[in-house]
Amino acid sequence: MADIIKLLPDHVANQIAAGEVVQRPASVVKELMENAIDAGASTIKLVVKDGGKTLIQVIDDGVGMSVTDARLSFERHATSKIQKAEDLFQLNTKGFRGEALASIAAIAHVEMQTRTAEDEVATHIKIEGSKIISQEVTVAPKGTSMMVKNLFFNIPARRNFLKSNNVELRHIMDEFHRVALAHSSINFHFYNNGSELFNLPTSNSRQRIVNIFGAKTNEKLVPVNEDTQVVQISGYISKPEYAKKSRGEQFFFVNNRFIKSPYLHHAILGAFDGLIKKENHPGYFLYLTVDPGSIDINIHPTKTEIKFDDEHTLYAILRSTVKHSLGQFNVIPSLDFEQDQNLETPYNYKDKTAELPRINVDSSFNPFKESSGSGNAPRPNYHKQNTKSWDSLYVGMESNLGKNSGFSSVSFESDTITGSIFENKKELIDTGTTTFQLRRKYVVTTIKSGMVVIDQSRAHQRVLYEKFLKNITIKEAVSQQLLFPLSLTFSKSDCAIIEEIQDSLTTVGFVFDNISEEEVTVTGVPLSVPESEVGIILDQLISDYQQDFVVDGFSQTDILAKTLAKSLSVKTGEILDSDSQLALVNDLFACKESGVSPFNKPIYVTITEDDIDKKFI
Ligand code: ADP
Ligand code: MG
Predict the structure, then answer these.
(1) Tell me, what's the pLDDT at 398?
(2) Residue 110 falls within a domain, yes or no?
(3) Same domain, 567 and 472
């Protein structure tokens, strides 16, 4: 047989490597910024257009490159950072693989201008899809400017795979945060579509965190410091009461390189054990310094995962150091979250002045229009027993209002019978059904053939979910105006998300007066949302978006309806009075899909008389 093995041409090899190194515009941002840092820059400018799809430019004032180096830098395995194999074990730079520029140049239009301090003139090189288009002499300041245009221009499948500009911008911001947090002594500028998103002056690490995540962050931080033979740890953790539902701000840096480590993350969770609720995530910014010889950075092309020689020791040290800081800064005594209301209200509602109680009137309520009231008062129907607060008075009123307007069984009776997946729905509703609550978790009711056990929380999620979806579709949501506008502080990227989904939020009843870079002013909320939960709900929404629900093909409205339903539903552990139980049962079986929760979990089980009889044999 003839020889069939051939070496891949360089541009093909580069495209293949690009597949690993460059997943999206944010990957380019990371590589270019890291190169600028390795070049010893003291100021780095990042310019982005259209989520990085049209343009990514990084300008630095670092050492620059000679004419020869400028040309060589685009070759694969061209690097100035290692000369011999042993260097790999003493890395103090970000790059070493020498493939970033070659990969980027294979899949984009790249222009580089660079000049060293010794040279009088700069080099200007243009490359498109690995082909050098031009190389000229030009005038430019010392340092390097790398312009990457039309990413994936020659790989349409990859280009089409990119998400919306906003989503890509968010990924870029994440990378930018990581690099900027690891290098507080460097001055960073970030421009997006012509406007300045960040201007981070040279500072210490605490100021850098605050400059990125907002002034309110300062009060949340507890310092962490430990110096051992194995590792030196510095940085900050956020106080347990500021733990958030969204994963948000969790950063590990090892030798000034951002890394992901589920294992070390677990060590932090261990330190916070018992201090925060299970569903909340602690914030941390931790900088570890270890001997470069004791880690292997090579295991991942994008270099975000590393291997430590002695992970177990590191784990133990980290955990006890964080625990120690929590104790030392006296955050532990106020930590009984069963009683401490502050933990429920991370936005300092406690400091607000008292507000007059108010009565909400559903101005769009029309008694002659079927189910017009139903969409807007989901929660009040299931009022809990023993609520003694002022609120409950009004809740009760709303509840009656809701019932009169047909939010109970009546309005649904006719549509429930058709196309039902639950054959006994009719008998369930029209016999004088009795219900009871089992272990504050299930609502049990009888049907002719036996009984149904309903998960109260999932059932309510389903009811609310369908209501919100309906509201969004027919745009009939009613908003309650807040007496005082509510100002909430978020990080810039969180604000960007709120801005992105603002339209959908408005369709369910949120009214925003102003969304600035770090602050959101809310003047109206959906009728069923208590003011104290607005911040928590928005947090949850942001977190759901960050986890890229969108990627799985869910629409914005769907995520919104799901999140609201999850946040506002009756929870396991809540006592429901008998009226509420009955209303819940009726509303559930009035739903289009009463069998599964919005998150695809079963809502109820039926136990037939036969099943029970069998137990007695
Ligand atoms: P690596 O960073 O792994 O060495 P790259 O492909 O990212 O590989 O860069 C190749 C080489 O080009 C670097 O080693 C460096 O010498 C040079 N280089 C890249 N970017 C810059 C820059 N902004 N300033 C100076 N030199 C640079
Ligand atoms: Mg590099």
Answers:
(1) 34
(2) yes
(3) yes
